[in-house]
Fold each of these.
Amino acid sequence: MISHVISSEPEYEVLGSMLRLGEVIVGDDLPVDEILETLVVRLQDLEAALTAQLSASSEAAAPVDLEQPFGRLSRMDAIQQQQMVRAARVGKKIRLQQTKAARMRVQRGEYGLCIACDDEIELKRLQARPETPYCYACQDEMEARQKSMRRT
Ligand SMILES: [Zn+2]
């Protein structure tokens, strides 16, 4: 069922198609209930897709065996490639966590509320990233804080 989703390509492809799907389904004239329903379905799809991608890439993230008879360059290639796979996996794991947390909020009837300020998250934002836990304002604030932390 989700085989089309499992690919070595990064997740943008999946997300891109979901966003397009979202744009088609979620029109401005739809009642909020229906918009939320489509978002819940997209959360389910996203969780399945990320889970599949993570299990597909787990082997590629395994430590490079330095004892193997690689040539000098190809060993460096292998390590570099592995680092890219690992970095991508970290992003996906975070996203998967957020997706699971968002589905929990659906179950508790709290979905769509910012977990920082309790205000409603903008629908446009939910449509772009249904798993987001923050409204625009809180997200901006968080990113600004992370940047200043990195600078110090
Ligand atoms: Zn907020």
Note: The helical segments are 12-25, 32-57, 72-108, 123-128, 136-151.
Amino acid sequence: MNLKIRQAFKTTVKAAIIWFCVSSGTVISQTLPLSNNLIGFNSDEGEKLLIQSRSREDFFPLSIQFVTQNNQAFCGVASSIMVLNSLGIIAPESPQYSPYRVFTQENFFSNEKTKKIIAPEVVARQGLTLDQLGGLISSYDVQVKVYHAADTNLAQFRKLVSENLKQPNNFVIVNYLRKEIGQEKGGHISPIAAYNEQTDRFLIMDVSRYKYPPVWVKASDLWKAINTTDTVSGTTRGFVFVSKVNR
Ligand SMILES: [Ca+2]
């Protein structure tokens, strides 16, 4: 190959590699479009809502611990370890990070009490109900309170959650039906990180990060999605408060 042909060949290959990286990157990182009632956190408006928010104490610790769920049924497990790591309680050993300790979606079930509630293989097939989520988190040294939608209402939900979001060392995980907020489609679990008073919206840190960005959702829309029946448990979905144990 003479020099000119060799250079032309190199340039073509380089361009092809760049094209491949850019185009495949676009495909890989493409989340689903959002319906008009939602505001993506990855937008100017989404950013503004956080800056305006006066109930965003939980955003910072949760953002440091934000993870993608390990499989399509592990939303509850991913949400739980985000909250447990944010609370800074003593974590189990993690072989891949030894000697450091941290909650991961693998070692979350290393506790005997946790395994007795539901096995990880079962969670990987069918996900978690609200009570199973509360039970699993309770198997660690934290205080847990489970609220079913049937036992509360929109005004109480808004008040309780927005107050929690103003306080450190306690967190909220929500269990809701995606299709009621205009998403695809079934039951889902993720932590709530902030509340915007002016627009009456909550920020959901969606752990299925391959599918949707965090979104700002109207309190009334989220409430509709929480006030739905989980066919596995036969009870309404709801939300869970998790805090450090008072000693
Ligand atoms: Ca809080």
Note: The chain has two domains: 1-30, 32-244.
